[in-house]
Amino acid sequence: MTDRPRILVVDDEPQLTRVLRTGLTSRGYDVRAAADGLAGFEAFNDWHPDLVITDLAMPNVDGLELCKRLRAVSQVPIIVLSAKGEEKTKVEALDLGADDFVTKPFGIDELLARVRASLRRAKAPPMNEATQTTLDSGDFHVDLDSREITVRDKPIHLTPKEFDLLVYFIKHAGKVLTHRTVLAALWGGNYVEQNEYLRVFVGNLRKKIEPDAATPRYILTEPWIGYRFDPGPTT
Amino acid sequence: MRRSVLDQRWAGYAVAALSVVVLTLLLKIVGTHVNAATVSLALLLNVLFIATRWGSLPALFTSILAMLFFNFFFLPPLGTFTIAATDNWIALLAFLVTAVTAGQLSASAKRRAEEAETGRREIERLYAELRDAFERASHAEALRQSEKLKSALLDAVTHDLRTPLTSIKASITTLLDEARGEPPVPLDSDSRFEMMEVIDEESDRLSRFINGLIELARIEAGELHLRRRWGAVDEIISTALTRAEPITRNHHVELQVEKELPGVRVDERAVSEVVYTLIDNAAKYSAKGSTIRITARRSGEDLIEMGVEDEGPGIPGGLRERVFDKFFRATRDGDVTTHKPTGTGMGLAIAKGIVEAHEGRIWIESGNGNKGTRVLFTLPIGDEDVVDDLQYSESKVSAQ
């Protein structure tokens, strides 16, 4: 039994699985491959990988269905491989439980960075909402009791909704969050189509926390999809 | 439309008055040669004329005026409105009733005719409007369908271009990282070789795909240039088999070519390409160790029928036409089997284009024992009177 992180690659393109297997193995990961969603789900149940990388368009059980099935039984990080122009499917995959996506064609470094971030997030101790009183993430420090926030050691003043939004981003740092997911979490199920609410609050939040709101470095926009929060350097 | 002065109702009254005066004058000039009956008939004709031209009220006006003129100028005692004889009273009354009735009837007939004409014009206008609306709707629908098709084709093309590009990009970045000394574990020689092999294979795949696109575009534009000349069927098959040797190594290839087949006047290179495509598909979609059967026989007087049969999963009846559509792959789009498609989705479309450019036909049947796939195509033998005076006589044939 090896302690190398296990990665399951699910793709119907044998050439790509060959490359990913070799590329990931050389970086110290233990890799297995499956040719479709059905084989992928079976491999997951047999092998219990630490992370799943899956294509979206596959015969039999496709990537979306695989995300759904995996989320029903596990919180394993899922990275989907998608193509430019498949924004709708990407959003669907993220809403179904995928944690991140990489757009084809991609360099191995980009994929490796996403793999590391997803594994890091999965390894982080789960937050105990009931007892936790502070959050520390990169440049951000949050006192949940007094509702005070400092960014780069400078206190900032936020409205209650902006505070909740920023805390939500911090708690899901590094993960791609669809508009729908954020709206449902903060405004409730009736507001999932009201992207403009979110746009206004994100705009205000950026003005208060970003060094330059025009080129944000914390709240990053994923075009047509949603946002990804990068808390900055972890020291 | 502009109405003329004569179309005005007052013009009807003016013409009525004038016509009665002129008619009376004329009748008075011919005087002694006309009797009261002739006068009344002439005046009645005038009433009918006014009624058909200007309608019922001018006709009524004409009738009364004509009755007064008839009485004053033609019924004794002349020059008065009194009537001496009883029969003249009856004649005058009969004239008036006839004039009014005839006037009203003809005016009503005129009105009906006008209404019918208006109705006809309205129907024509509605019909034209409906036809225009329908044409616009059909055009919009056709545009929408064409846009949908374009978008689907674009999706298929970008998918087929992007997939090998992804493997190439991932391989080359892995090799580059290693060359820069970045990975903690350097690649072993097998892994390095595998990466390069993937780059090589995927570049070939891209190249094949682009060549296929060019070939398809040529066929669709009707620019497939066939170099027809007399050739032997077994030679065409042999050329395709030699080329397909690397992909058929793991299969049994069985040849069933009828003896003494006549020569065919075809583009040998193009037909050999069709046979190769069918063998390639058979090898791809059937298990190792299974048999690929290649057949050729005479079909009727004028045709040669060639076929390639495999023992794979077969293609359901509903998809046997669609597999000839460009970018359609039964294994992916038809979800026939878990087999991985490695084709471009263009091979059969190109094969169909080539066969049809030769005025032949291509179709799919089940293989022996209702298992596997049998792709058959026919080619006309060719007119024996045509002699190739040039080694490469070139003919431009429009693909259908």
Give an overview of the whole structure.
- The complex is a heterodimer of chains A (235) and B (400).
- Chain A has helices at residues 14-26, 37-47, 63-73, 87-95, 108-123, 160-171, 179-186, 195-209, and strands spanning 6-10, 30-34, 51-55, 78-83, 100-104, 134-137, 140-143, 148-151, 154-156, 176-178, 219-222, 226-229.
- By secondary structure, chain A is of the alpha/beta class.
- Chain A folds into 2 domains: 6-123, 3-Layer(aba) Sandwich (Rossmann fold); 134-229, Winged helix-like DNA-binding domain superfamily/Winged helix DNA-binding domain (Arc Repressor Mutant, subunit A).
- In chain A, the strands form 3 sheets. Chain A has a 5-stranded parallel beta sheet with strand order 2-1-3-4-5, with helices on both faces. In chain A, strands 6-7-8-9 form a 4-stranded antiparallel beta sheet, with helices on one face.
- The longest helix of chain A is centred in the middle third of the chain and has 16 residues, at 108-123.
- Chain A starts with 5 loop residues before the first strand and ends in a 6-residue tail after the last strand.
- The relative contact order of chain A is 0.10.
- Chain B is an alpha+beta fold and 400 residues long.
- Chain B has 2 domains: 5-127, no CATH class; 226-397, Histidine kinase-like ATPase, C-terminal domain (Heat Shock Protein 90, 2-Layer Sandwich).
- Chain B is 58% helix and 12% strand.
- Chain B has 9 helices and 9 strands.
- In chain B, β5 and β6 (303-309) form a beta hairpin.
- Classes of the chains: A alpha/beta (235), B alpha+beta (400).
